[in-house]
Amino acid sequence: MTIQSPEGTRDLLPDEAKFWAHFKAVASDVFGAYGYVPIETPVFEQTDLFVRGIGEATDVVSKEMFIALSGENLKRLLDGGAVKAKSRLSLRPEGTAGVVRAVVQHDLVPQGAPPVKLVYAGPMFRAERPQKGRQRQFNQVGIECLGAEEPSVDAEGIIMLMRFYAAIGIPVEATELLVNSMGCDACRPPYRDAVKAYMDAHADELCDECKRRADINPLRAFDCKNPGCAAVMEDAPKITDHLCDDCRAHYGTVKAYLDGAGLAYTEDPKLVRGLDYYTRTVFEVQVTEGMGSQNAIGGGGRYDKLVQEVGGRPTPGFGFALGYERCVLALQAAGYAFPPARRCDCFVACVDDSVRAEAFSLVQALRDAGLASEMDHQHRSLKSQFKLADKLDAAFVVVMGPDELAAGQVKARNMQTHEEHLVDLAAAKSLLACLAAEPSGTEPLGIAEVFGGIGEGN
Ligand code: AMP
């Protein structure tokens, strides 16, 4: 049996891989205009970073992490031995913890410095049950802004994310932006206690998992998919009724900025998000139709305690991550298809093998001039070379035959108009040389100028 890709993973085949590159380029443009610069961190980190950063009681850490062990350490464990903390590694389930670790390790926000704004893109790993829009390896693009607690950071981040969706082609009217505040160290603990008391009072209506959550992490019950639990949690105490004055003011200012920018949003006091590190602002963007249950295409929020949690000095932070695969599903629901990855401006066909070397050199010259070009590498007949050129959607086919070549000419066919011209090869090559010498700045020559009839013989 042939070996298949692992469960919960997807190959990005050429058309899509090209789109993924475009997706990252658009993110880099949109976020770059807000001052975000790229960072790359390893796909695996010490497990402890995720335990301390994301929280031991979260689903992501307690159930969904892929542990990475070297063969040697696996053997050591199987033999009943121990593995040093620094060799206990996990594949990253999200990007924030790693970026924050790098910021602390390299002191990217020295005391008194302006905030650092970072953008990353790459694969994340969660051992979840795969379904449409939920994979075990998926790609995220995310940003982190560290060093400022002003609500303007949160608002500009949210506005920037919505701009990205529009720029990539997800219709704004297909999305819903949900916002909430999760409070801070002062107001969240009493709120948690209030939710726990409420859950205890309704314990017989909750699923076993939520009964457990009431003790460990009661706020997670807001995300329970069980309809009975959802109905109970509908009437649970709301964080917005428990915010302290500072958190209320912060949340109010974020909303005022969003209003000022004309951004529509829905306040959702049940939005708690799955990771423990959030404080104050949290938000999520959902697609309203065509996505099934996995309809969140991005989300994030503020995390003013995380840097300390991983050993840095107190530094406020804000970030979000968006899921590439879910954005693709949203685009497809809106009728988007990937454009073909391949482009071919000119196919050089050989009448026989005697002209192969000359054809090879012309193809190189075309490519040097920036024109995507191709030739046959399998000794196909001329007819089959034309078929291949058609398949590649070539704009021009240049036919090289021994007789024409002896006269210093080639035949060029415009594949759209089917016009054919005899073209002087030396003239065409010198035009190509000009093209190669001036790749930008001057008015670019097109392939039509090179093969559209210059030096026409007859
Ligand atoms: P999170 O880190 O859970 O806030 O996720 C941020 C975004 O990543 C979500 O809004 C999704 O778009 C995407 N995402 C999270 N988990 C998965 C998954 N298992 N498969 C595909 N996309 C995911």
Automatic annotation (TrEMBL):
Fetch the CDD domains from UniProt: HisRS-like_core, HisRS_anticodon
Q: Where is the Aminoacyl-transfer RNA synthetases class-II family profile domain?
A: 1-339
Say which domain of life the source belongs to.
Answer: Bacteria
Which chemical reaction does it catalyze? tRNA(His) + L-histidine + ATP = L-histidyl-tRNA(His) + AMP + diphosphate + H(+)
Q: Which Pfam families match?
A: HGTP_anticodon, tRNA-synt_His
Q: Supply the alphabetized keyword list.
A: Aminoacyl-tRNA synthetase, ATP-binding, Cytoplasm, Ligase, Nucleotide-binding, Protein biosynthesis
Q: How does it assemble?
A: Homodimer.
Might you give the EC number(s) for this enzyme? Answer: 6.1.1.21
- The entry's protein name is Histidine--tRNA ligase
Localization in the cell: Cytoplasm
Family matches, as Gene3D superfamilies: Anticodon-binding domain (3.40.50.800), Bira Bifunctional Protein, Domain 2 (3.30.930.10)
Q: Which residues bind L-histidine?
A: 94-96, 126, 140, 144, 273, 277-278
Q: Which family is this sequence assigned to?
A: Belongs to the class-II aminoacyl-tRNA synthetase family.
Q: GO:BP terms for this protein?
A: histidyl-tRNA aminoacylation
User: Which GO molecular function annotation, any one, does this entry have?
Assistant: ATP binding
Its GO CC terms are: cytoplasm
